[in-house]
Amino acid sequence: HMGVDMHSFVDALLGAVAQRLMRRNCPHCTRDDAPPDDASLRASALTREQVAGWCFRKGIGCEACRRTGYLGRQPIAEVLRVTDVIKQCFIERRPLTELKRAAHESGFVPLRQVALRAVADGRTTLAEVNRVTMIE
What we know:
Elements: H1 6-12, E1 15-25, E2 30-32, H2 38-43, E3 57-59, E4 70-81, H3 84-91, H4 96-105, H5 111-120, H6 126-132
Antiparallel strand pairs: 1-4, 2-3
Helix pairs in contact: 3-4
């Protein structure tokens, strides 16, 4: 509502990017970790079946990471490409649920999903992903 015509705004919009920096497990002291308990999984909106086969790892703390278990950061990002269907949702001011469905159908991968891949690969912890992303 900045006085810009919605049609002009949407016509000029190609996409939107959201990004965060996420701490990485320390490569010097990272060890295999047990999967989170059921309460932690529920709090993270995950199920035991969803995390089956994930490589949970955690830094135990060393001189290199100053006893934090993390060393360095990794960028994560989500990219929403504005398709004709998404443009129409904006112009018609459709509900957010419709916009999310249209984005998902066009291949949109949410920031949390990108971050959870890093947990599955053992590059960071579930606690770190919960810290930097929103649980839906």
